[in-house]
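Re: your question about Chondroadherin-like protein

S., sorry for the slow reply, the queue was backed up all week. Below is exactly what I fed in.
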Amino acid sequence: WALLLLAAALALEGTATARCPTPCVCDNLRAHVLCLNGNLTAIPSTIPQLTKKLDLQGNSFTVIPVGAFLTTPYLTHLDLQRCKVERLEEGAFRGLGRLVYLNLASNSIALLYQESLDGLSSLQQLILEGNRIEEIQPGAFGHLGSLTVLNLRANALVYLPDMVFQGLQVLRWLRLSHNALHVLGSEAFTALPALRRLSLDHNELQALPSEALARLDGATRLDLGHNPITYVAEEALAMASLKHLSLDHAALQDVAPNAFARSPQLRTLDLRENQLQGLPPLAGAGGLARVSLAGNPLLCSCLLRPFHDWLARARVQVEGACAAPPALRGRPLDSLRPPEMRCGHPRLPPSPATPPEQPRAAGSGQCPQGCACSPDFRHGSCENKDLRKIPWGFPRDTRLLDLRRNAFGTVPPGAFPGLKELVSLHLQSCSIGALRPGALRGLESLVYLYLTDNHLSTLAATAFEGAPRLAYLDLDRNAFTRLPTGAFQLLPNLISLHLQHNAIRELAEGDLAGAGGLRWLYLAGNAIRRIAPTALAPAKMLEKLHLEGNHLAEVPTASLRGLPALSELKLSRNPIKRVGDSAFLPVASSLQHLYLDNMGLEQISPGAFTGLGPKIRSLYLESNKMSHIPDMSNFTGLDILNLRDVPFHCDCQLLPLRRWIDKLNLRIGATCGSPAEARGLKVKLSTTFQTCPGWGRGKAGGTSPNKTKAASKPSKKKRSGKSPARGFKKSRA
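Result:
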C-alpha cells in the first residue's frame, strides 16, 4: 500500500508539472504558482489542480468571469493585484471554499454586485484597496462569514447604506480610509458584533456619525482623522468599549464637555493639528489617560484653567504647547502653573448708544445677557430662554448659533448683524410666523438654516437676500399651503429642501423657479393632490423626490419629464389604486429606488414598468391589494424587492413570477392570498402551480420567467464564462 500511495503521489506531481502554464512558474513542493506581470487576458485553465497559492499580479484580465477558478478548488491564497480588473461577475469565485486570502488591490472595480464574492465561505482577508468602488450593493458580503479583515481603503465611496456589511459576523477590522464618505446610514454598521477597529480617516465627514457608530458596542479603536469635522457635540460618541479615538488633522473648533461621557472606556484621545484654542473639562471620561493637542492654536489664558485643573485632578497626560499669549508661546501645557494663565483684557461694558438688551459686539468676547458664548470656540447658544427678540452681541466670528425653543414670532430685517462667518443657524420651535425681507442680510457664509416647527406660511425671495451660500433649508412642520413661489431665486447653491408635514395642496408651475441646483426635495406628509407638468422642471439636477403620505391619485408621470438625474422616487402612502402603462418612462434611465408601498394599489398595468430594468436596485410594493404583478424578469440588478402583505392569486397566470422568485437571492416575502388551499403560503412553496402547463419543464431546466422553451436546450451557456442575469439565483426567501 505504501508503494501504491507513493506512486500515486508521484503521478500527481508529474501531472501538476506537466500542466503548468507556459508563462508561469510552478513550485509543486509548496503548491505555489506564479504568473507575474505577463500579458494574460484570461485566467489560465491549465493551472495544476492541487495549487494552493496562485499569484497573478500584473496581468490584464478586465473581467473575472463566472467560475473562473473551478479547476483549482484547493486554493488558499489568490493575488490579483494590478490586473486591470473592472468587473467581478456574480459567481466569479465559486468553488473556492478553502480560500482564506484574496487580494484585488489596485484594479478598476467600480461596483460590488450582490454575489460577486459568493462561494468564499472560508475567506479571512479581503483586500480591495485602490479600486474605483462607488457603490456596494447590500448583500455583497453576505456569504463571507469567516472574514476578519476587510480593506476598502482608497476607493470612491460617498455613501454607506444601511446593513451594507450584513453577514460579516467575525469581522475585526474594517478599513474605509481615503474615500469620499460624507453620509453614513444609521444602520450602516449594524450586524458587526466582532468589530474591534474602524478606520474612517481621510473622508469628507462633516460631523461625527453618532447614530451609526452607536451600533458598534465592541469596537475599541476608531480612526476619524483628516475629516472636516468642526464640532463634537454632547454625548456624540456612545461606544461602550472604545479605548482609542483619533480625531487628528480635522477642523475641530470646539468639543462639548460631555462629548465622550458615553464612552467610559476611552483611554487615549488624539486631537492633534486641529483649530482648538482650548478644551473644557471632559466630564464622564473617567478612564482617559492621554490627550494629544499638539499643533493646535492653544490660548493659555484663564479660559483654559478649568481644563488644566481637570488634567491634574484626573491624572491625564497631555501633549501640546501654548500658541498664545506671547509670554507663554511654546510652553508645554503640563509645565504651566495656574497663576500664569491670566486674562489680561477685562470685559468691556456695552456701548451707551446700544440698548442694554441688544449689545453689539465686535468680536471681543461679548455675549448677550442670559446666553452662552464660546468666543474662542466660535459657538453661541440662547436655547430655551423664553426670549421674545433675537439678541444681538454675539462674537463676530461665531460659526454656530443655537436659538431654538424661544418665542421670537418674527425675524426682522438685519436680525444677525456682523455674523459674516456664521455657518449654521438653528431657529427651530421659535413660534416664527414671518421671515422679513433682509432677515438674513449679511450672513454670507450661512450654509444650514433650520426653521422646523414654526408657523411660517409664506416666504419672499428677499428674505434670503445676503445668504447666497445657503445649501440646506429645513422648513418641516410649518403652515405652508403651497411652495413659496419665487423664494429660491436668491439661493443658487440650494441643495436640500425640506417641506415635510406642512399643508401643501399642489405643486404649481414656477414654484421651484431658481432652484436649479436642488438635488433633494422632501415633501412627505402634505396634502398634495396635483403636480403641474412643469412644476419640477427647474430642478433639473433633482436626485431624490419624496412624496409619500400625500393625496395623489395617480403617478405624476408628466411631471417627471426633464429630471434626468432622479434616482429615488417615494410615492408610498398615496391613494394610488392603479399604475398605468409607462408610468416611470421619463426617469427610466436614472431611477434606482422606487417606493410604491402601502397605497392600497389594486392593479399594475402589464406595461407599467416599461423602460425600467437593470438599474433598479430596490422596489417596494408591500402592503397593497393587487393579486398579480407584471413581468419583472429584466430587473436583474435588484438588491431589495419587498412583496410582503400582497394577496397574490397563486394560479397559472402567476407562474412566471413563481419561477422568477425561485431564482432570486432575495428575501421578498411574497405570499398567496388565494385560492383557499394556498392562502398564507409563500408563493415559492405553493403546490398550486404544479398543475400548470410547462411546470415540469420549468423545474427541470431552470428557465427564465418568459422562456419556458429554453428548458429543453442544453446548458452549455453556463460554461461560456458569461454572467447569468444578476439576482437569478436560488431564493433564500
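The first helix runs from residue 2 to 18. DSSP finds five helices and 45 strands in the chain.

Happy to talk it through on Thursday.
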